[in-house]
Amino acid sequence: MTTPRTEVKRIPKEQESKGQVEKLILPRTIHLVPMDRLCGYDVRPGFYEINGATAIPGGVNFTVSSVGATSIELLLFHRGEEEPYAELPFPKHYRIGHVYSMIVFKLNIEEFEYAYRVDGPYEPERGLIFDRSKYLLDPYAKAVTGQSEWGVSAGGGQQYRARVVKDDFEWGTLRQPLLPMEDLIIYELHVRGFTMDPSSRVVHPGTFAGLREKLPYLLELGVNVVELMPIFEFNEMQDYRQVEGEALCNYWGYNTVSFFAPNTSYSASEEYNKEGNELKSLIQDFNSHGIEVYLDVVFNHTAEGNEDGPFFSFKGFDNNIYYLLTPEGKYYNFSGCGNSLNCNHPIVHQMILDCLRYWVTTYRINGFRFDLASILGRNEDGMPMNKPPLLQSLAFDPILGDVKLIAEAWDAAGLYQVGTFPAWNRWAEWNGRYRDDMRRYLKGDGGLAQAAAQRIVGSRDIYEEHSRENASVNFITCHDGFTLYDLYSYNEKHNEKNGWNNTDGANDNNSWNCGVEGETKNEEVLSLRHRMMRNAFALLMCSRGIPMFLAGDEFCNTQFGNNNAYCQDNAISWLNWELLEKNRDMFRFFQHMIRLRKEYRVLRANVSGGACGFPDVSFHGVEPWKGSFGDSDRYVGVLFAGQEKGMRPQLVYVASNAYWEELLVKLPPLPGGMGWECAADTWEEGRKPWRAKQNEIRIRPRSVMVFVGRQ
Predict the structure, then answer these.
(1) Which of 108, 224, 238, 252 has the most CB atoms lying inside 10 A of its own CB?
(2) Which of 386, 394, 379, 373 is nearest to 324 (CA)?
(3) Nearest-angstrom CA–CA distance, 38 and 105
């Protein structure tokens, strides 16, 4: 298709020199003056190095790029209207290289939304699918319209527009917490699901403001990092369907529409041209109280899907650059979601770096967790790279220098890089082996004691070879899978309500229902389930590495056996805060273990290499120093020892019995004047600290005890 010719009228030099244009259009203090007249608007070439749409004194700078395009038009819309009121083709002399940039004067950012129309060749076998009939969302859009009310689809195929955002939020003199990696305690949550249930009793349920209302609760719990599941603009109505009368949607949000824009449906109020201020207030409050905020970011794919998916942004600008394509022009699908971003192409690489820098400088984000991060290390042919340029750039970028980088070190195509993720001693990883080994050990599987001991001391068998400190993010539960309560309530997944005949979701859950599948009133079973939960959390808090747990685990939240609740915007996914009162004892145990971890640095890091003649870490069986575990062993004892300069020695012994019978255990003898005091016992939760006599204890079946050395 060809672009209609549009006359560009040059403003006479004599008018410029006399200042007539400046007097008519701009204040005297502004030195940028129009150079051309285009479709009734005064324009001039813009700032080519500033991507996106940016308000400047007197107008708006629009910059966009495309390698394959033959022409690009800027489209201006009145708010909410489907058709543009102005169409401004970028003049050919406004293009430098592959970048189109134009300043349009006298635009009020509150009065318009914008999109682009891009023309170019259509050769699908080469990955070129330019289509001038499409209205395209700016890849650098800072705010997106068309999906601002949760669960309400704008309809049509061209609903996305962008807004220009005022960046005038007042951060004041706020200093970020800058917590050391070893001190992090990560709490993963879904912004909507955290407060959407009426039991949350917040004024603004399901929003950033609602989450902000829960700050006192988070401080009471003791976590110092909140990791937000995807908050980039996404389309929850993608794949919308009805199953047995229940509306299902893309609730989790792992289908990015725009990488630079916050999800407007998570705002409690309309923030026209100030999109993101509510999120910034949340971050400001959390940071000022010592809580860091991390984002779960999805750079492995977009919501445009494969050949059958929607066409609203990246496909229309440079499909063959933004996506990994087969030699036939089809989409590689390493994400399991239809497409895979071509992350190591220099243009995509730069966009991702720009994006992360934007979130750090504009929103003061403290860290990022990268979904299916192994895709970020694939080459254009889909093969894993030895030193992926993108991952290296993020590791050494100065603006990201204080930001935590956490990789989900695998992808949906089978690439599994736990322990081998390209890290430059900068990236941490979700340790999937911690989850799997600890789940199996805790439920009593044989042959797991040695693996459990290694996981507790920081998975040195995985990471020490690569000299990667604080590399392991330890978790037993996360959004993907069972909640902690369900882990000990269901042997099998129960995803029937997802509409896929229970075929979706993982089958290797390593769960145990404690004798009864699902809900029960059997007090003995319920007691065992709660003890198993305490066991899991006690070991998580007593493991070297960075602990992470799922919101609601601290009060036995359930998803009723659903281990893949990605589509459930209802009571299955929403936290039921009534359970907090019902299970207040569990909440108190979580508080206690978090305090214990904070009090004893030896649980978090190697302190001076040991103390009192003990090494930094040591393994023990029921007899001290016999820490070579066999297939039949289900008891693991781990001793942490260290002494900071000028401080008393710290000795913490973690006793874990995954066996179904009581065991007699001898603790390692302490130097004179010291004794072992029980600081935590999952069998008798809430019992006051007590001293072990003659370094000998009886540890009850399926329980964990934590002892500290006292003078």
Answers:
(1) 252
(2) 379
(3) 11
Q: Is the dihedral of CA 18, 23, 25, 29 positive or negative?
A: positive
Residue from 533, 541, 539 nearest 514 by CA: 533
Burial class (CB in 10 A: 0-12, 13-18, 19+), 396: exposed
Q: How far apart are the first and last CA of the chain?
A: 84
CA gap 633, 642 in Å, rounded: 27
* The Cα angle at residue 281 between residues 275 and 287, in degrees rounded to 5: 135
Integer Cα distance of 30 and 58 in angstroms: 8
Q: What is the pLDDT of residues 28-78, one digit of tens each?
A: 556 789 999 999 999 999 999 999 999 999 999 999 999 999 999 999 999
- Reading the block at residue 147, the tokens are 């999906």
Is 408 designated active site? yes
Q: Catalytic annotation on 371?
A: yes
Q: Which of 408, 437, 616, 681 is catalytic?
A: 408
- Here the tokens at position 152 are 């309400």
Question: pLDDT per residue over 323-334, tens digit each?
Answer: 999 999 999 999
The token pair at 477 is: 């539960």
Spatial CA neighbour of 320 closest among 129, 125, 123, 127: 127
Asked if residues 496 and 502 have their Cβ atoms less than 8 Å apart, the reply is yes
* CA gap 228, 209 in Å, rounded: 14
CA distance 166 to 472: 39
Beta strand 427-430 with 404-407 is: parallel
Catalytic residue among 113, 119, 213, 371: 371
Q: Which two tokens stand for residue 677?
A: 């005091």
Alpha carbon of 433 to those of 337, 416, 436, 476: distances in Å? Answer: 24, 11, 5, 10
Give the 3-state DSSP-derived string for 474-519, with helices as H, strands as E and coil as C: EECCCCCCCCHHHHCCCCCCCCHHHCCCCCCCCCCCCCCCCCCCCC
Residues 685/589, Cβ–Cβ less than 8 Å: yes
Where are the strands (E) in 41-112, listed by range? 41-45, 52-56, 59-65, 71-77, 86-89, 95-96, 99-105
User: How would residue 1 be classed by pLDDT, with cut points 50, 70 and 90?
Assistant: very low
pTM given for the model: 0.95
Nearest of 429, 412, 462, 443 to residue 658 by alpha carbon: 443
CB distance 654 to 688 below 8 Å? no
Two tokens, residue 178: 């800058």
* DSSP designation for 456: H
Q: How far apart are CA 276 and CA 102, in angstroms?
A: 26
